[in-house]
Amino acid sequence: MREDDSDWFARWEEELPSPEELMPISQSLISPDLALAFDIRTPNHGNGNSNQPHHHHHHQTTPPTPSQLQLPSSQANSSAEFAADSADLGSGGAAGDEPARTLKRPRLVWTPQLHKRFVDAVAHLGIKNAVPKTIMQLMSVDGLTRENVASHLQKYRLYLKRMQGLSSGGGAGSDPATDRLFASSPVPAHFLHPNRVPSSDHFMPSFVPIATLQQQQQMAAAAAAAAAANPHLQPPQFHRQIAAAHFGSPTNGGFSSPTSNGQFGSPTSNGFGSPTTNGKFDPSFLAVRQTQQQPIQRMSTPSLHSPVSNYVEDLESANANGGRTVLTLFPTRDD
DNA sequence: CCACAAATAT
DNA sequence: GATATTTGTG
């Protein structure tokens, strides 16, 4: 076993898109729930209403299209502390209502990079501990939900099964497109054997989740804010990766064409977990503000979410595909 | 409550 | 077609 992951972390880190390579786009994702909760609207606070852009939605309570989060010209800026100005949630009046209730999240697009992260997480957790929740926590990707991971995991398992099935024979000349994604990441040896204990798997050194994008600054700002609220914040520990809405690979090898799409997502419970049963990894606490709504899933596991600062939605993407919006977590760039 | 797998829906 | 959601089970 050439488990020379003595530096898997280093490798992992390196394989991440470099700040320069990524972020050709300046879109970020803000949890819709969060956005709504904070009642974020265009900084142009002129009318507290006008929830309806010229977009004629179809019937249904199409929750306020997650879009319209247009940033002024200066998105990059600091922590412009949005929120706040919308203090009138009490009456809410017109816009208020309870839109966030029926909000649907956008379909997650599993880019090779994201999948890689997924595989890495699973690999290092050991099959034993690789359950959706844990994986999700380890991946530390903002916006990723347990369901997202569970769904993907299910598919991935089927893929693994299939792979074992035809280890020696078979033509296997054509793998479903699905397999392409999975094939983009090497399957760790132990995945194929049901016999492997995570013993040798060096568990991560506190794993400091990547921090790449320049938006990191924003996260830093957010973190600072959180710190303010929660003085117990530790030093640079982990930053969640922010999810950027992107779609259609730019000009790379062309992996996933802009075909699938989805809706938007919200945070819910992608916080961090604590060593509930087994003390697996270190817990973490970031302070975040969860506003009304959402019963907040018990704090059995202090989960928090990192507030993303800038929020811009990609309107064009919706067009390209007939109305659906594709959300891909962090830019794609084959590694 | 959570994980899982299969079926079903979008 | 890829992902989400539902359903049933452990």
Automatic annotation (TrEMBL):
Comp. bias regions, Low complexity: 43-52, 67-89
One MF term in the entry's GO annotations: DNA binding
Keywords: DNA-binding, Homeobox, Nucleus, Transcription, Transcription regulation
Compositionally biased tracts (Basic and acidic residues): 1-14
Annotated region (Disordered), positions in chain: 1-20, 39-100, 247-282
Comp. bias (Polar residues): 249-279
Gene Ontology CC: one annotated term: nucleus
Keyword Cell wall biogenesis/degradation: no
Domain HTH myb-type: 110-161
InterPro entries, A to Z: Homeodomain-like_sf (IPR009057), LUX/BOA-like (IPR044841), Myb_dom (IPR017930), Myb_dom_plants (IPR006447), SANT/Myb (IPR001005)
Pfam family, one: Myb_DNA-binding
Top-level lineage group: Eukaryota
Cell compartment(s), UniProt: Nucleus
Name of the molecule in the record: Homeobox-like domain superfamily
Organism for this UniProt entry: Arabidopsis thaliana x Arabidopsis arenosa
